[in-house]
Specification:
The chain contains 17 helices and twelve strands. The protein has about 425 residues and is an alpha/beta fold. The strands form two sheets. A seven-stranded mixed sheet has the order 1-7-6-5-4-2-3, with helices on both faces. Strands 8-9-12-11-10 form a five-stranded mixed sheet. Helix 5 links the parallel strand 2 and strand 3. Helix 3 runs parallel beside helix 12 and helix 4 crosses helix 5. It is globular, with a radius of gyration of 22 Å. It starts with 6 loop residues before the first helix and ends with a helix. About 50% of the residues are buried.
Length: about 425
Amino acid sequence: MDKNWKIETLAVQAGYEPEDGAPRIVPIAQSTTYKYDDVQSVADLFDLKREGFFYTRLANPTVDAFEKKIAAMEGGVAAVALSSGQAANAYSLLNIARCGDHVLALSSLYGGTVSLFTNTLKKAGLEISFVTPEMGEAEVEAQMRENTKALFIESLANPALVVADFEMYARVAHKFGVPLVVDNTFPTPILCNPFKFGADIVTHSTTKYIDGHATSVGGIVVEKGGFNWSNGKFPEFTEPDASYHGLIYTRDFAAAPFSVKMRVQLVRDYGIPMMPFNAFLSHLGTETLHLRMERHSENALAMAEFLRNHPKVSWVNYPGLADSPENAKVRKYFKNGMASGVLCFGVKGGREAGERVMNALKLAAIVVHVADVRTGVLHPASMTHRQLSEAELVAAGVSPDLIRLSVGIENIDDIIADFDQALAQA
């Protein structure tokens, strides 16, 4: 792989380099185990003294190719693919923090992530507090603690569509010696590269645009490399790991200690790896990702313009609109000002009128999903975010009338016509 390749080329070519006479397309290694000719070879694999595959829970050739591709596209040194985006976000913090530690996060995160942080990880002993997107740098700094181990944000919030000020959050995180963790699901590495703006760890729900066809649930965690895990705040990286005969991650795997530790501790013990067939499908999805993200963004901007000029629509939120309060950050951090394919809007008449519109759609489907080639809608307050309290809904930017629209790559005239006829019934 040529390190000078542009991201569009990496999307097609990275991750798998077939040898002479090998399959051109990455094969599906649908096997739980692998054969070796002598005992010592397997012993060395278990002791992490050599690279290779010995059990698919830890590593698999198909999954490995996908991990290498996403790492290359994000500009990281390594990646670990998991069974879901929720697993990716959970592991990104559990790999850093332990019982009694604190994590600071943005309040505008996806509802499932908020639930993960405030319920399940809380039960695991992590304390996670939130700052709002409106808070300035000094206010965010004031929320950091001595035992804070990470700052977690979304590059483009779901569904609030707040664009994170990467450089500001990176300054805060690094001032306190902790990594900035960024969920980059909505922009994908095609539209945004958080590592260029100070992020240290990037996560994705690959279920969304990376797969792009609503076929495969998955997640991935990417390590930038170069973070100082030896600054005294992360002893599990610098002290011997008794489960590997005294191995020290920062010493023995200096290039990618975060990724190695995640794989050989968390994936080993908790499981939840990405399955080979899902990795194969997701790997295929990346090959057209650069083409799809451009069309998604173009269609979403056209839909946002149409909706905000429609007499039945009360408001539209899309950061790609020139007059959006988020647009300056889109132009600063996202490729060519493209803002991905998701927008939100409200129908005059509130929730009931919105339900009538959703029920009248023909091309667009009501789906508990987002970010694939087909146009879809959902009502977050009663669907994806229904576990959140009223206060949490407000903090996440979810109003009762909010309809989330995931604009597909169909012909834009057909999408507009579908919403035009549905809005006529509001």
